[in-house]
Amino acid sequence: MSQPQEVLAALRTALGDDQIRVGDAVPVRNRADSAGLPPCAPAALLLPRSTAEVSAALAICHRFSLPVVVQGGLTGLAGGAHPVEGEIALSLERMNGIEELDPVGRTMTALAGTPLEAIQQRAAEAGLLYGVDLGARGSCTIGGNVATNAGGVQVLRYGMTRRNVLGLEAVLPDGRIVSSLVKVIKNNAGYDWTQLLIGSEGTLGVVTRVLLALQPAVPSHHTALCSVAGVAEALQVLDRLEAKLPGGLLAFEAMWRDYLAATAAHAALPPPFTSGPALTLLVEAALPAGEAYADLFLEALSALVEEGLLEDVLVAQSSRERARFWTYREASSEFYRHLPTGLHFDISVPLAAMAQGADLLHARIAQASPGASLIMFGHLADSNLHLSIHPPEGTGFDGLAEVVYRTVRDVEGSISAEHGVGVLKRPYLGYSRSDSELALMRTLKDALDPAGILNRGRILA
Amino acid sequence: MSQPQEVLAALRTALGDDQIRVGDAVPVRNRADSAGLPPCAPAALLLPRSTAEVSAALAICHRFSLPVVVQGGLTGLAGGAHPVEGEIALSLERMNGIEELDPVGRTMTALAGTPLEAIQQRAAEAGLLYGVDLGARGSCTIGGNVATNAGGVQVLRYGMTRRNVLGLEAVLPDGRIVSSLVKVIKNNAGYDWTQLLIGSEGTLGVVTRVLLALQPAVPSHHTALCSVAGVAEALQVLDRLEAKLPGGLLAFEAMWRDYLAATAAHAALPPPFTSGPALTLLVEAALPAGEAYADLFLEALSALVEEGLLEDVLVAQSSRERARFWTYREASSEFYRHLPTGLHFDISVPLAAMAQGADLLHARIAQASPGASLIMFGHLADSNLHLSIHPPEGTGFDGLAEVVYRTVRDVEGSISAEHGVGVLKRPYLGYSRSDSELALMRTLKDALDPAGILNRGRILA
């Protein structure tokens, strides 16, 4: 089999020796993403330094019909960047850097391999803000964020990554470079092809450069933990707060009882409310600077307590307390390590079906895996639930995914709110997409990647 | 030529006699859109009552390779819905109706032929708001809004139509129905094909049903007219106001001096500022109810006057005064009738190049068409300028489009901010899109519409 040798030779010529790793020289980190699959060394690792090198590499792989897996920060949970036997891994890690910040148009231009946190920091230095924030901010890259349409904890206010992208430069599977980096809010000059690439998990093109919209910085944060009797009450609270603080809510996160039991047991965080409420909400608002507005936040919450919609409220009195409140929400990565291995889900449920959906999930999982702990939390205002099922030691996961995704189908939700499909959720895509939608996705894939080389087997079989 | 007869017979069988008009029975209104092109009777007008009928009609036209032009409210300004000789017109006017409003998930499901205003009113009745508003609200349809990714006067706060659409049902050019009407904010389960259809001007599929996101109603509007010395100052004002009223601005519209001269001369509206400032801004904010917020708005504006950034300010003291302020901005349709025939543009210019771009346009148009009046106004915060050039009677438009679009290219803007390309701007698409982008658009068109029947010649040749 001389073909791989021939390909490698062509790649070496195009990129230079130092941009290619093979065999043992492929670092361990490039052999897996964060989905928990067994590591697999790619046939080679490419480390292009420029869009031109990405283009040259893809043109060669396309010519030889050699499959390519694209890698960013490798924080994905769906196996999208996890190498499959025989694939060439193309990592954007050397394309790291912020090229420009335009303070007038409030835009930032960055290379795809730039970590999200670097983007956030650079925006903050200019008195601005980038609207997407998530736990993996230190390692995930902006290119990966775009490829997966990353969500996070501020979607309520700023939307998902899609809404924060003004333009892209990308390399198509055959090596062609396409670029739309026009620094305007409104551009109806023909198809917005960037929208198709956003969220396509690297299967239609490799994002190499992004043009981001920035926002004014938030003058002051107001943060509270609230206890409520259930989902229906929480949704009424959301409604009232949005009416009183129009456009002001940043986050509206929900943690179910078992979630906070786990933070207490395994993350050294005593529960915020000793009553052990069914739901604990983390509410955060951005309001104009000034005391009147702090009062407004307090008044809005107090009114809800008086009305009986909120059982109890704790308002952060300092930025330190604010940070402490957030540790509850961000503790999940810590307590997972202490629990039996879990199966994780990231689903969307329509708000009108959220109470019923949460009940159904609890009942069906209890039946399918007696004794399992079900950790439920999520971005409630965004209709997004995260679920971790930890069956008792010694029992397996058989049928659990089926139970969860069947429930998603029953309530007409989505099998992936923000993590994407990758390879892990591919078998279940039909639970939230029709055959005609899948056929349309296949048509688009075949049109842009006729040789089927790019992130093959991700999303579509 | 018996083929048309055969097609018509097939269409009659599929849709029923009453859903087809031919010859003189085609109403005058369906022979033109609002682009000002000479009317042209389509070969037939189809009036389907359901998605199934749209599907049947397209399947037949696809089989016979017969071109189809899609019609909504016919308010488009780019010729996208204007029939071309031999085309079948497919009007969505009978698919008019709101099917559901979900107050918990804040969504509305409506048929494509529903007028925008009906959507706005139904949302208001439920204490909610649909985020897109534009002058043609009474006649334009939601399907047309989606097809053209309509913008309007509240993009600053709510984004363009794209941001307000949660899902679509559409019929592809070969008659296949695709549907994604999942009532969730976050859905990363595979390609978001709806994003590709939004803004594709009916060239990739016919939108038949929409799922819209609704917003909480605005508790109170605060509106002001402000005079400023120029674009640079206006952009500083925008910056300051966004910092003081985070998330609060709804509109930030700019009217140049000649615009207000025209409203004074031809729309019986005396100028708001006798000083005749270079720029007059219409600023509107949505703030929480209560006196403290009215004060906040006043204080923010007063501070800008003291600082010298604003020359003068008029704050609306009643909803009637607010409506009067808006008549300045909405007067353009009236004064166009009194001026010599004009050539209209809808361009985007990066904010950082806005001052330079406006100057360049004034200078180059004065040179190309001495004595022409140049009416300039627009959604300044959205980087969107509307331009009308009215050369003196007896002189033509030769070369003026070239002058404008060349300037757009020089400042790296977009030839269409919100009106779309249609047929009128097709020759200039290359001024804001590269060859590789045009090739990618062509690939997508060919993949979804291999017979090339749907809105042929719109956007792409």
Protein topology:
Two copies of one chain form a homodimer.
Chain A: H1 3-15, E1 20-21, E2 44-46, H2 51-63, E3 68-71, E4 88-91, E5 98-102, E6 107-111, H3 116-125, E7 128-129, H4 142-148, H5 155-158, H6 161-164, E8 165-171, E9 177-180, H7 193-197, E10 206-213, E11 215-216, E12 220-228, H8 231-244, E13 249-256, H9 257-266, E14 279-287, H10 291-306, E15 312-315, H11 319-330, H12 332-336, E16 343-348, H13 354-368, E17 373-379, E18 384-390, H14 400-410, H15 435-448
Parallel strand pairs in A: 2-4, 3-4
Antiparallel strand pairs in A: 1-2, 5-6, 6-10, 7-11, 8-9, 8-10, 12-14, 12-15, 13-14, 13-17, 16-18, 17-18
Helix pairs in contact in A: 1-2, 8-10, 13-14
Description of the structure:
Two copies of one chain form a homodimer. Chain A has 461 residues and is of the alpha+beta class. Helix content of chain A is 33%, strand content 21%. The first copy, chain A, folds into four domains: 3-91, Uridine Diphospho-n-acetylenolpyruvylglucosamine Reductase, domain 2 (2-Layer Sandwich), CATH 3.30.43; 98-216, 2-Layer Sandwich (Uridine Diphospho-n-acetylenolpyruvylglucosamine Reductase, domain 3), CATH 3.30.465; 220-333, 2-Layer Sandwich (Alpha-Beta Plaits), CATH 3.30.70.2190; 339-418, 2-Layer Sandwich (Alpha-Beta Plaits). Chain A has 15 helices and 18 strands. A seven-stranded antiparallel sheet of chain A has the order 15-12-14-13-17-18-16, sandwiched between helices. A five-stranded antiparallel sheet of chain A has the order 5-6-10-8-9. Chain A has a four-stranded mixed sheet with strand order 1-2-4-3. Chains A and B meet through strand 9, helix 7, helix 8 and helix 15 of A and strand 9, helix 7, helix 8 and helix 15 of B.
